[in-house]
Structures are given as structure tokens and as C-alpha cells.
Amino acid sequence: MSAPLIDLRSDTVTRPTPAMLEAMFRASVGDDVYEEDPTVQALEHEAAARFGLEAGLFCPSGTMTNQIAIKAHTEPLSEVVCEQTSHIYLWEVGGIAFHSGASVALLAGDRGRLTAAQVEAAIRPVNVHYPTTSLISLENTHNRGGGSCYELSEIEAIAEVARRHQIPLHLDGARIFNALVATGQPATEYGRLFDTISVCLSKGLGAPVGSVLLGSKAFIQKTKRIRKVMGGGMRQAGYLAAAGLYALEHNVSRLADDHRRARQLAATLAAQPYVDFVMPADTNLVILRLRDEMPAEKFLAHLESQGIKASSFGPQMIRFVTHLDVDDAMVARLEAALTAIPA
């Protein structure tokens, strides 16, 4: 019998556990567009309560929750301030321009993290030649930064800048629970500092699909129309929401195991002669650069021949992501494959 595939391309590849499937099967459902699905409502309430916010909106994806939030916060001829490698800019198909007709002010962060001084300097003065700064967006953890986390003090400083200038602050929290587990920060502090938060359920938390946009009751009511026009209105969505509820109840604290395995993998990679550098593994992402003598295609092909998948992440850059479906035995098998690659 062949060894099972080890898929480290992303934490989106996780599959529901038998217990999660059972919760989905038992879900009470209704028509969510009519606001009659009790399980969707329970998920939205639970997610909002965890962050100390008033309401939530269940959507099929994190791209949708981010783009809905941006659309609701902005208008044409306005501008979004974000880090230059942000998911909302790089990985959402130009959605800010397509959906919102807004410009983007791109800032170079430290592994994706901005400072309050950078943000304040990017806010446009009132001038007919400039777009109006209408939104500041942060990403925590930051994907391109190797799962880097913000210090709460820096977010507080950025939030103070945003409020002083009366600009909404949005969080792309696709992996926010990874950040909370890694840092010990309280989720309610994020609800205090951010106007809106996008929380993904289908990455490290292991749900098959879904994200929740969090904010005030008035804001979420406004976003329901935007979700509908984007095609995100779902009917008996409680079967999917039940997976999200299960994930919140059972799969948050275990993220620490993913982080431990990522640190172990990063240490092994750093010791290999064909590796140029490895980013700090603060959470569940391990990003490295291969030396030029080891072509990325050759490296990935060797791993695939061993039943292991990883992602190309730019020229000579590789990303591994630990998650619910990767155990200690799989990490050991990966380490053996890595040490067997000739320099």
C-alpha cells in the first residue's frame, strides 16, 4: 500500500473530519436569502461575538468577504491603503478596481506589516488631483510575509491614525486565528480596533468552504445587497455553516500543533545546503528561497516523486503550509525527503 499524499500547498486543501461531516448532516437549515437559516444565523452570531462585534455575514469565500467590505467602505475616485503584497491586491483578481472603482496606495511593509507612520504618510491631502483615502486594510497573519503577525501595539497605533482621520480600518483575517493562537492576543481587542474583519473558516480551521464578514449591524445590513449582486446569496447554506461552527468550537486551539510542525520544518530546511534562506516560521507558513544551483522545478519534482506537494511562490521561492491533515509522521517523511535531495 502506497504512503498517503502529503499536500502542503495550502491549508485550503483540508477536508472535513467525520465529526464535522456529522455536524453538517445534522444541521437545521432554511433559506438564508430570506434570513431563515438558523445555523447560518448561529455561525454569524458566534463569529461576531468572539470578536466583540455586532453582526456577521456568511459568504462562500474570503475573497468575497474582503471585496464586499471594500465595496461598502469605498466609492469610485477613492483609495485603499494596504501593503504591496496584500491578498486583497495581489490575489483577488484586481477586484478592488473591478468591483469598487477605487485606487490602491501600496506600501512596502516588514514581511507584510505596516507601521502607523507609513499609514499616516499615505493618507491623501484634500486636493482635486488626488483620490480620497477611504479605507485602510491590514492582513494578519500576512501570507507573503510567511505568516507574520502584528504586535497589538502597532495595530492600536494604526487604529488611532485611522480614527483621527475618520477612515475605516479593515482586517483581512484569513488566518486571524493563527495569529491569535501564536500571540495570545484576545480576539475582542480586534473587534475594538477594526471596523470590519474578514474571517476565513476553510483554511487552518478545516471547514470545506466559507468566510464570515464581521462589523456593526448597520454595516452588515448594507453588505447583504452587495453579497446578493456578487452572487453570494445562498439558500440552505446551514449545511456549510455547520462546518464553520464546528471549526470554531473544535479546531482553534489545535492550530498550535500546525505552528510547532512549521517551526520544525523550517529548522530542517535551514540546515539544507541547497536552501538560501528561510523566513521565520511564526505560524503555519514556511517560505524559503532555494539557491540558484537548485532549480525550483527540480526541487518540486523530487518532492512530488515522493508523494509530497508544495507551492512555487515566486522565482526560486517555495511555500509549505502545515494544517489539520498533516501529522507528525508526515512531517518526518517530508524531512527524510528533504535531506535526501542532493545539493
Automatic annotation (TrEMBL):
One of its GO terms (cellular component) is cytosol. CDD domains: TA_like. GO terms for molecular function: L-allo-threonine aldolase activity; transaminase activity. InterPro entries: ArAA_b-elim_lyase/Thr_aldolase, Low_specificity_L-TA-like, PyrdxlP-dep_Trfase, PyrdxlP-dep_Trfase_major, PyrdxlP-dep_Trfase_small. The modification N6-(pyridoxal phosphate)lysine is found at K203. GO terms for biological process: glycine biosynthetic process; L-threonine catabolic process. Keywords: Aminotransferase, Lyase, Pyridoxal phosphate, Transferase. Gene3D superfamilies: Aspartate Aminotransferase, domain 1 (3.90.1150.10), Type I PLP-dependent aspartate aminotransferase-like (Major domain) (3.40.640.10). It comes from the Bacteria. Its cofactor is pyridoxal 5'-phosphate. Residues 7-291 form the Aromatic amino acid beta-eliminating lyase/threonine aldolase domain. Pfam families: Beta_elim_lyase. Belongs to the threonine aldolase family. This is Aminotransferase class I/II-fold pyridoxal phosphate-dependent enzyme. It comes from Hymenobacter persicinus. The lineage of its organism: Bacteria, Pseudomonadati, Bacteroidota, Cytophagia, Cytophagales.
